[in-house]
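User: Here's a protein and a ligand (pyridoxal-5'-phosphate). What would the complex look like?
Assistant: Let me lay out the input and then the predicted complex.
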Amino acid sequence: MKNFIPYGKHWVDKDDIKSVEEVLKSDFLVQGPCVEKFEKEVCKYTGAKYCVAVSSGTAALHLAVLALEIPAGSEGITTPNTFVASSNALIYAEVKPIFADIDEKTFCIDPKEIEKRITKKTKVIVPVDFAGQPADMEKISAIAKKRKIYIVEDAAHAIGSRYADGSYVGSCKYSDLTCFSFHPVKTITTGEGGAITTNDKKLYNRLMMLRSHGITKDPNNLKTNPGPWYYEMQFLGFNYRLSDFQAALGLSQLKKLNGFVKKRRQIVNKYNKAFKNLPNLITPFEKEGVKSAFHLYVVQADFKKIGKSKKEFMEELKNRGVGTQVHYIPVYHQPYYKKHFTLESKQYPVCEQYYRGALSLPLFPKMSEADVNYVIKTILETVK
Ligand SMILES: *Cc1c(COP(=O)(O)O)cnc(C)c1O
């Protein structure tokens, strides 16, 4: 049998290994110079003023929501079509997650549905740039500005993506804070890892302290200063720091990011062409002008018409060496969410319909041409 092709896979090469090895041989494994260098490079790439690297994408979201100092008991609006971390971050900060249904084409949160769910308690919106395609940030930021609501953009899928105006996701053009994940299935990796970008100096300073226990040593920020040993913990923070060797990996991965995106888009174009005329399979939609980094290739399959259940379809592909996944189980389906919040599937008809048909096909830059052709051939034979 052919080698198994997973739905996603990281790319680590000799340059990455060398970059990490250098740090491992140096004096600093943590709190050395690489983290700051990595943060500077993320700023340069995205166009944001400030960046704080952290230990995961989840940590990034957690600190982003905390940095806003939203009163406990407020509400935050997010999408149900996401990984649980997006809405968990709200819960960590004692903000109640409110889900708004998704757009039927982009599968990102629908601005009209956001507006319907805004109350006096709404203090933050957490849109997700699903599969790499930016959410409708132009509209969402207009909605939020009018009502003084913050925006934390979950861009775990979207480093390397661009909005219709050409600016990069992470520039915070349409958000107060943007969060990235560098988990190995994402577009670039540091192992575990994440980052927050912002253009707001105050938020940046708070994030820097939150990342390290809420501690400051900055003489300009201390209440008193009895001597060189002195530091102050001014609020409750965490240890969410990234290691230096992880940042070194991030630095060498960042150099390859544009190449990764290019390769992903080439594969997407090939898939789109091959599947264009399949009546029971809808290929991903990309909004005019937008440049998605295509973290995922999500198709909408009509399993009824194909005559196989999703489970049968996935198993058949798996047996033939093609890995697939479903992104995502709507968050309101999760037992924890059902237990703690009153959530009904019928409030989210678009997300329900999406979930029935959604399937992510293999997409990662290391795929060979033969891999891509094999996936195409297998899909064409399986949907018949
Ligand atoms: C991966 C992911 C996260 C969490 O990132 P980690 O680095 O795994 O903690 C958050 N949101 C979305 C949409 C993700 O895909």
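Summary: The two ends are 22 Å apart (CA to CA).
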